[in-house]
Amino acid sequence: AAFLAQQENEIAGIENDEGYGILENGEVPEALQGPEGLGAGMPCGDGGWGWGESNGPTDCYAAISQVDRLQSEPESIRKWREEQKERLEQLDANSRKQEAEWKEKAIKELEEWYARQDEKLEKTKASNRAAEEAFVNDAEEVFPGTEWERVAQLCDFNPKSSKQAKDVSRMRSVLISLKQAPLVR
Question: Which sequence ranges form a coiled-coil region, renumbered to this chain (predicted)?
Answer without folding.
Answer: 81-134
